[in-house]
Write a structure and sequence with these properties.
- The protein folds into four domains: 50 residues, no CATH class; 202 residues, 3-hydroxy-3-methylglutaryl-coenzyme A Reductase, Chain A, domain 2 (Alpha-Beta Complex); 115 residues, 2-Layer Sandwich (Alpha-Beta Plaits); 46 residues, no CATH class.
- It is 49% helix and 18% strand.
- It has a four-stranded antiparallel sheet with strand order 3-8-10-9. A four-stranded antiparallel sheet has the order 5-6-4-7.
- Helix 10 packs across helix 13.
- The mean pLDDT is 96.
- Bound molecules: (R)-mevalonate.
- The site of (R)-mevalonate (MEV) has 9 residues, from helix 10 and helix 13.
């Protein structure tokens, strides 16, 4: 047990890290060493870039990088790069793209691009006095003192757009916030926002203690707790939608366009009222969203946190997409709050991220937000389309079949045979395994 604890692991070379790890955790297994090393890139400069993204790197973890072509977005055609390990996600996106290609495609717009952050603090004094001091003095000082930090961002057209004092004392005793609003242009802006907020907090503390407006007791009871951006950005939001005449909703499952539209709308309404369904419905949306977010080197944890917080902003967890039918017209849309960057972070470092942005015609961050919203909407359309017609398993298992045969160690010839056998049969792990066994036991 003692040997499993180590000091200075980060100082070891990659080789030493692997040796130590395998010795202490898998009895020096050469097999594990080989697995870890076989993912090292032969080009040492490329490997070095990846090694340095994070700490204690010992290998690379591959996930497939695919393309969903034929997306008509605002009258332009896109091929969308998607990084995901889940089978059917790319196929579903491509299927939706094709469905909407001859129906006007996807239309998008930006509904806002404001990001937020807070200095969270405790103040036990007179509220009116604090409010007046903030408005007449502190606000200006906060902007002035962060002028060096905001300089480059202002040159690019962004910066601080507002600073407010927020009274939160009804929710937590003596709790207030300085709420900063920011426009971070083409960057996701986390570092910029956090630097501004930390400067706000320094200025605030200094000015507060210098001020003769507050008495000693108020000064003693004043505490800044923390300064941090919020990953919830309800005012940084993209809308994507599709529209068509009901009669154009033709599906090859045999369902009539009218029934399709009605069932589709009911499925969305169910996700709007039922959190159990909303969680799965939104998970499907995030299959599309995250894949593009990862392929473009953005922070999918931030994107997930934001989407799910927004899905609960009315006090109950609900669907991120909506559907209406009016005058025989079918309308399906998503409002996706999302904060993305095309500069900063991995965006200029990871060769595949650079490639993804190139494939997308080097969009601005605002345009990328809209493309990602389309990917989410398309994914949701594909999922609901399957759910209300054939069921999800048919398509999903078809895509998953290759994973099953690979797990069973099938040869290329065996794979072809199995794929052919299950062309129009129900697929399950058990059935595939017994077919393979039958084949293997057939005398040649
Ligand atoms: C699977 O990853 C996602 C779905 O369950 C989404 C949905 O049910 O809407 C198919």
């Amino acid at each position: 047990m003692k040997n499993k604890i180590i000091e200075g692991f980060s100082k070891l070379t990659k080789e030493e890290k692997i040796n130590w790890l395998t010795q202490q955790y898998v009895q020096g297994s050469n097999e594990l060493k080989n697995i870890l090393k076989q993912y090292w890139n032969q080009k040492s400069e490329l490997q070095k870039i990846h090694d340095e993204f994070t700490e204690n790197t010992i290998s690379n973890f591959y996930i497939p990088y695919g393309i969903a072509p034929n997306f008509l977005i605002n009258n332009e055609i896109y091929a969308i790069p998607m990084a995901t390990e889940e089978s059917s996600v790319v196929a579903a996106a491509a299927k939706s793209a094709k469905f909407w290609l001859n129906k006007g495609g996807f239309k998008t717009k930006l509904l806002g691009n404001i990001k937020l952050g807070h200095v969270h603090f405790i103040y036990k004094g007179n509220k009116a006095k604090l409010q007046q001091w903030f408005q007449c003095q502190l606000k200006e000082e906060l902007i002035k003192e962060s002028i060096d930090i905001t300089k480059n961002m202002r040159i690019r057209g962004g910066g601080i757009t507002d600073i407010e004092l927020v009274d939160k004392t009804e929710e937590l005793e003596s709790y207030f916030q300085i709420k900063g609003s920011f426009n971070t242009q083409d960057s996701m802006g986390a570092n910029f926002i956090n630097s501004c907020l930390e400067q706000f907090s320094i200025t605030f503390k200094e000015e507060f203690h210098k001020s003769n407006i507050f008495n000693e007791e108020e000064k003693e009871n004043f505490q800044i707790i923390m300064s941090i951006l919020s990953n919830y950005t309800p005012d940084c939001i993209a809308r994507a939608e599709v529209k068509c005449k009901i009669e154009d909703l033709k599906d090859d499952s045999g369902i009539s366009p009218k029934e399709f539209a009605w069932k589709f709308k009911q499925a969305v309404k169910i996700a709007e009222v039922e959190p159990y369904r909303a969680a799965t419905h939104n998970k499907g949306i995030m299959n599309g969203v995250d894949s593009v977010v990862i392929a473009t080197g953005n922070d999918f944890r931030a994107v997930e946190a934001c989407a799910h917080t927004y899905a609960s902003h009315k006090g109950k967890y609900t669907s991120l997409t909506h559907c209406e039918i009016k005058n025989d017209e079918f309308n399906f849309w998503i409002d996706l709050p999302i904060s993305l960057g095309i500069v900063g972070g991995l965006t200029k470092l990871h060769p595949l991220v650079i490639a993804s942005l190139q494939i997308l015609n080097n969009p601005s961050a605002e345009k990328l937000m809209q493309i990602v919203a389309v990917a989410g909407l398309a994914q949701n359309f594909a999922a609901i389309r399957s759910l209300i017609t054939t069921g999800i398993q048919k398509g999903h298992m078809k895509m998953h079949l290759i994973n099953i045969v690979n797990q069973l160690g099938a040869t290329e010839k065996e794979k072809q045979y199995i794929v052919n056998i299950f062309k129009d049969k129900t697929i399950s792990h058990h059935l595939v395994s017994s077919e393979l066994e039958k084949l293997r036991n057939t005398p040649k």
